[in-house]
Structures are given as C-alpha cells and as structure tokens.
Write a structure and sequence with these properties.
single chain, 374 residues, mainly alpha, Mitochondrial carrier fold, MCP_transmembrane
C-alpha cells in the first residue's frame, strides 16, 4: 500500500522495488535503443551484440513485470479494496471464482472503466513516495540503502526514513484509495491530478466536504506507518532469502564455466524478478488483515459511495464509525468474524496468478529470442 509493491503492487507503499529493478535493467550505454530492431540485434553475432541484446532483454523483462504489477493487476486491486471497505457485504469473495463473476458484472453494468478507475492516482502515489524518500534522504543523514556492514543504528535510521516517507505520502494515498473504490455509477469523473489536489486539501483541511466521522491524519499515522514498515521489512527479508536460494540453486545446477550464453542472460535477470514476486506475495498475504483495517480507517468519513460487491450493481454508502485502529479490529471481529479481515482475498490470488503467468510467458519468449541470436 502506502506503497509498495507494494501499490503495487499491492501493498501500501511497496512500489519502489519494481521501479528500482527496472532502472537497474535499463542501465547501459547512453546510445538510444529506440530505433534498434531485434533483427539488428540478432544479426550482430559479436560480443557487443550479445551484450546489447542482454540489456534489451533485461529491460523488456523488467518492463513486462512492471506493466503486470501496475496495469494488468489494477482491476484486482480495485475489487480487492472495494471488498475490504464494504462492511455491508455478505459475500466475502475469498476465492477467485466469485471475484471473476463480480468483475464481469461490474464490467457489464458500468463498462471497463469501472475496473481501471484510479490507476493514474496510484502512479502519482508511487511518484510521491519515491520523490519524498529521495528529498528526505538528501537533506537528512538518513540512509536510503542498508549496506552489508549494517548495524542496529543504521537500520533504525533507514526505517525512520521509510516511516517519514509513508507519512508524507499518506494523504495522497487516502485520495487515491477513494478514487479506486468510488463507484462509476455516481458519474464523478476526476482528473488525473485530482489525487494531488485532494491530498493537499486533506492536509490543510479544505476541499471536498467530509463528515464528522472523518479520522484526523494524526490518527492514521500509526496504522499507516506500521503497515508500510512491516510490508517493507517482510518484503526485504523474503526477497533476500529467495534470491540467495535461487543463486545457490543456479550455481549448483550449472557452474559458471559450463553455462550457456542463453542461460547466463536468463540467470542475470529472472532470479531478482522471482524474488521480488515472492516478496510481494508473502507480504501482501501476511499483512492482508492489517491492510483491511487500514483501508477502512482511511475511507471513513469521506462520503464515498462504493459498488455493491454482493450484487454487481447498485451502490452503497460508507457510514462506519470506528474510533481508531483497535476499535476497527474489534468491530470487524465481532460483526464479520475473522474471515471479515480477508474480504476480497480471491482478488489477490488472481493478481499473483496473472503475474506468475506473465513472468513465465516472458521467460519463454526471451529464451527463444536469445537462442536464435546466439
């Protein structure tokens, strides 16, 4: 959420990892590849041609993963959030089968825009998150990266930087959340920069009128930062662990001296993508109940109208009256049961199944291209 994935991703502020991975893969000579075709690459049999093809492949693989996380998966994010904030719902949509059915109903009654609403604002939140982190680290001694020779103080300062970043992006995330769950039926078409306007308005207390049930930003800081930091920590640990296992497995299965050029290129890119995929999946699953609570707190008092996720048509108002994080947890547990924290979980299954399929298809395509070029 409040980034990551990630939003990608799925988590609140988990979006920084995919962008960083893509930037690493696109790094190379300053010469533009814009007009260079695959034919030119494959015809160049020299080492320079293979190196260019390797960089081109890495950029394409990273771009495909990024596109899947932020575009193709967006309908899953929309439905997932609508289910999470819908305390009226009798159907929890814990499996992908009911999620697909309700997606079809929304598309039939409201059109494709109902499933891709708010996508522009999610990119804005990711940009604000990355920009805020860079600016804060530039003007403070807080480190953006944790070195191999880390110590508790260094880690604490790094997590403090993340916490401050999540605090800065929080009002914009609230605005983005509203855009993704607000029903298209009410016909309130917002501009792409509406998220920025609403976020600033939330901070200064101006803009669209809110009800008295709206929780102040100070009350949202703790759950927002808690979710963001936990998502980042869990993702980082799992990513490092999975990457270490994959590298050891790769080295054991085919030592460097016996590795083909094709396998070397694939080994250079896919382990990191797979590790990032596993990290996002695990952190989203582990923190899903906390994310449900967080979304309900952010949406309360904003006069948001959501789609009826039981019927696939009609709309419902959000009229919750939670006093804070603890009250929200206790209320969900009493009125909706423990499974109430997992409303819309079927959308997560679809989201990561789709992502895994795209990664596999991309790997097959680039394996074929690389084999034909060697």
């Amino acid at each position: 959420m409040v980034a990551s994935g990630r939003e990608g991703k799925s988590g609140v502020f988990s979006a920084d990892l995919p962008f960083k991975c893509l930037l690493k893969r696109s790094a190379g000579p300053s010469r533009s590849l814009g007009r260079t075709s695959l034919i030119d690459f494959t015809q160049n049999a020299g080492a320079g041609g293979r190196e260019q093809l390797s960089r081109f492949a890495g950029f394409g693989i990273g771009l495909a993963s990024l596109f899947t996380e932020n575009v193709l998966a967006h309908p899953c994010i929309v439905l997932r959030r609508q289910c999470q904030v819908n305390y009226h719902a009798r159907h929890y949509h814990l499996t992908p089968f009911t999620v697909i059915n309700i997606m079809y109903s929304f598309n039939k009654t409201q059109g494709p825009r109902a499933l891709w609403k708010g996508m522009g604002s999610t990119f804005i939140v990711q940009g604000v998150t990355l920009g805020a982190e860079g600016i804060i680290s530039e003007f403070t001694p807080l480190p953006r990266e944790v070195s191999h020779k880390w110590n508790p103080k260094h880690i604490g300062e790094h997590l403090l930087l993340k916490s401050l970043t999540y605090m800065v992006a929080m009002p914009f995330y609230s605005a983005s959340l509203i855009e993704t769950v607000q029903s298209e039926i009410i016909g309130d078409n917002t501009g792409i920069l509406e998220c920025v306007k609403e976020g600033i308005g939330r901070v200064i207390g101006m803009g669209v009128p809110h009800s008295k049930r709206l929780l102040p930003l100070l009350s949202l800081i703790f759950p927002t930062v808690l979710h963001g930091v936990l998502h980042y920590v869990i993702s980082s640990i799992i990513q490092k662990f999975v990457l270490l296992i994959l590298k050891r497995k790769t080295y054991a299965s085919h030592p460097a001296e016996s590795t083909s050029p094709v396998q070397s290129m694939l080994d250079a890119y896919f382990p990191e993508l797979i590790a990032n995929f596993a990290a996002s999946l695990c952190s989203d699953v582990i923190l899903y109940p906390l994310e449900t609570v967080l979304h309900r707190l952010h949406i309360q008092g904003t006069r948001t109208i959501i789609d009826n996720t039981d019927l696939g048509y009609e709309v419902l108002p959000i009229n919750t009256q939670y006093e804070g994080m603890r009250d929200c947890i206790n209320t969900i547990k009493q009125e909706e049961g423990m499974l109430g924290f997992y409303k819309g979980f079927g959308a997560v299954i679809i989201q990561y199944t789709l992502h895994a399929a795209v990664l596999q298809i991309t790997k097959i395509i680039y394996s074929t291209l690389l084999q034909n070029s060697v």
